[in-house]
């Protein structure tokens, strides 16, 4: 159990680290946030050229504070960092941050003590500091790019870079560019290159759907972001037997709805056949890398400035990339939009690292926050892929803070293990395989947050018919949860 006298170490000063620090301080807990960069913001402090949030700003907010009216619809890196600074100032937690510090190693000294080896990145000096709780808020991936070693890479005469490394489109000027990877960073790189390159080929084994803001004349927010709209998804792992039966009963209807949406998207967006997704939309809603429509990218595809090849890379030759269907794409520059390595395991010794090691489809821990068999270790925002990150990590943080402060009992190892096995069975039955499947929440974000709030004795339901309508039909944007989050910050079960 915890108490108000606990000292909490938070690794990572981005969206999750700030939310976690705020929640802990509201419970009277002492916090230190260790951040490698020179300011708060995490991955948004230093990212690739023109990186933006992939959701509209009204979905990428803390419940407590809104983006300013002048902020871009899809906030830029700088706008996100300024927003986090504003949040930290409003919560009065700036003094908790230690910038330019890196936690090199975390050791469990005893059942209730963590020893952190902390490096001052300006002086190189390393000190050892002790805490009663350790919270990892570094995101799902490390800052180490995942560089896939393709056959023949060493023979390539041009430049091979990771998507995280370009800071200007000048590197693409007058070049033949091949972008490998179909996620947001790949789309962004192909779009940026198309403005200045001679030729751009975008190679993606899986061409994902890009979701517009409207379905025909109808805004998608009420359709996708309401609890009723989330019924298009498979059942949540904690749904009751009758609810799961209803999902089974309506499965054919849900498939028809998803197919109709696909047809409308293709017609509405005038997507060239070469860029048609080769994955069902219903499946994409269960993946970690769903993206909103990038109109400039789609324009570049329509105009032939970006050629989409839905194939795998078989070999890299001295001046081209050989694809799985046998063709070659000429290249002067190759961009690897291939993601990031998982990173937090390297913090720990062998025993703990094995307990938080990835299975073939991700890390399965209690509520995506607590390893069942490691006391006083938690992950906030580091093992979850939700639709709206700031909102979800806020709920995670408030849930964890109540536990750390001793205002709620921690479940037993047996209870946590049983819950984890239920989650694992649900994911492996309904969700497509990917390396982080255990962390993917996406549209189940609201069921997930309802579950955490219920643990805290906070109900998301309000009395009255109008509130019932809002509960089921109103888009669940973060702003609408402000009152509930305020209630959760002071909720106690002990």
CATH H-level superfamily of the largest domain: FAD/NAD(P)-binding domain
Multimeric state: single chain
Give the low-confidence spans.
none
Per DSSP, what share of the residues sits in E-state strands of 2 or more residues?
A: 15-25%
Mean pLDDT: 92
Give me the secondary-structure category.
Answer: alpha/beta
Describe the main β-sheet briefly.
5 strands, parallel
Total count of domains: 3
Distance between the termini: 11 Å
The coarse silhouette is globular
**Rounded Rg:** 23 Å
Number of helices: 14
Helix content: 25-40%
Task: Give an overview of the whole structure.
The chain has 494 residues and is α/β, with parallel strands linked by helices. The protein has 3 domains: 7-143 and 342-490, FAD/NAD(P)-binding domain (3-Layer(bba) Sandwich), CATH 3.50.50.60; 145-208 and 291-339, FAD/NAD(P)-binding domain, CATH 3.50.50.60; 215-286, no CATH class. The chain has 14 helices and 22 strands. It has a 5-stranded parallel sheet, covered by helices on one side. The chain has a 5-stranded parallel sheet with strand order 8-19-9-10-15. It is globular, with a radius of gyration of 23 Å. The termini are close together.
Task: List its traits.
19% strand; globular; FAD/NAD(P)-binding domain; 5-stranded parallel sheet; flavin adenine dinucleotide binding; 494 residues; alpha/beta
Write the layout of secondary structure elements.
Elements: E1 7-11, H1 15-26, E2 30-35, H2 77-91, E3 97-99, E4 101-110, E5 113-120, E6 126-131, E7 133-136, E8 159-162, E9 176-180, H3 184-194, E10 199-203, E11 210-211, E12 214-215, E13 218-219, H4 221-224, H5 241-249, H6 251-269, H7 281-284, E14 291-292, H8 295-302, E15 306-309, E16 313-317, E17 320-323, E18 328-330, E19 333-336, H9 350-355, E20 377-379, E21 385-386, H10 389-404, H11 413-430, E22 440-442, H12 445-455, H13 465-473, H14 482-490
Parallel strand pairs: 1-2, 1-7, 2-3, 7-20, 8-19, 9-10, 9-19, 10-15, 11-14, 21-22
Antiparallel strand pairs: 4-5, 5-6, 12-13, 16-17, 17-18
Helix pairs in contact: 1-10, 10-12, 10-14
């Amino acid at each position: 159990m915890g108490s108000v006298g606990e000292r909490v170490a938070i690794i990572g000063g981005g969206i999750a680290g700030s939310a976690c620090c705020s929640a802990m301080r509201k419970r009277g807990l002492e916090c230190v946030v260790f951040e490698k960069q020179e300011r708060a913001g995490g991955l948004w402090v230093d990212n690739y050229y023109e990186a933006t949030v992939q959701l509209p700003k009204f979905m990428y907010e803390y419940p407590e504070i809104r983006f300013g009216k002048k902020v871009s619809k899809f906030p830029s890196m700088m706008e996100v960092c300024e927003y986090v600074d504003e949040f930290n100032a409003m919560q009065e937690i700036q003094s908790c941050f230690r910038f330019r510090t890196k936690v090199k190693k975390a050791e469990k000294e005893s059942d209730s003590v963590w020893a952190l080896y902390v490096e001052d990145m300006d002086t190189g000096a390393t000190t050892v500091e002790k805490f009663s709780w350790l919270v990892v808020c570094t995101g799902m991936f490390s800052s180490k790019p995942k560089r896939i070693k393709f056959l023949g890479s060493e023979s390539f005469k041009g430049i091979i870079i990771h998507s995280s490394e370009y800071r200007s489109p000048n590197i693409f000027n007058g070049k033949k560019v091949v972008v490998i990877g179909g996620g947001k960073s790949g789309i962004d790189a192909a779009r940026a290159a198309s403005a200045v390159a001679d030729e751009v080929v975008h190679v993606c084994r899986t061409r994902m759907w890009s979701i517009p803001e409207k379905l025909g004349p109808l805004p998608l927010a009420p359709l996708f972001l309401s609890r009723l709209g989330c019924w298009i998804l498979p059942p949540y792992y904690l749904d009751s037997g009758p609810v799961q039966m209803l999902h089974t009963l309506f499965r054919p209807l849900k498939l028809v709805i998803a197919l109709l949406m696909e047809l409308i998207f293709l017609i509405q967006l005038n997507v060239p056949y070469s860029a048609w997704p080769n994955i069902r939309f219903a499946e994409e809603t269960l993946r970690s890398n769903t993206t909103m429509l990038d109109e400039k990218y789609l324009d570049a595809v329509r105009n032939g400035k970006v050629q989409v090849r839905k194939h795998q890379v078989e070999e890299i030759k001295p001046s081209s990339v050989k694809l799985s269907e046998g063709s070659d794409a000429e290249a002067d520059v190759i961009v690897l939009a291939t993601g990031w390595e998982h990173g937090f395991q390297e913090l720990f010794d062998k025993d703990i690292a094995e307990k938080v090691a990835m299975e073939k489809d991700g890390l399965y821990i209690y509520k995506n926050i607590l390893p069942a068999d490691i006391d006083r270790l938690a992950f906030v925002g580091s093992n979850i892929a939700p639709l709206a990150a700031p909102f979800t990590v806020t709920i995670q943080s408030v849930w964890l803070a109540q536990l750390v402060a001793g205002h709620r009992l921690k479940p037993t190892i047996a209870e946590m293990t049983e819950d984890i096995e239920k989650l694992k069975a649900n994911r492996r039955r309904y969700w497509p395989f990917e390396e982080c499947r255990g962390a993917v929440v996406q549209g189940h974000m609201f069921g997930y947050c309802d579950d955490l709030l219920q643990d805290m004795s906070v109900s998301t339901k309000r009395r009255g018919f109008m509130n019932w309508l809002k509960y089921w039909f109103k888009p669940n944007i973060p702003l609408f949860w402000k009152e509930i989050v305020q209630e959760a910050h002071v909720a106690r079960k002990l």
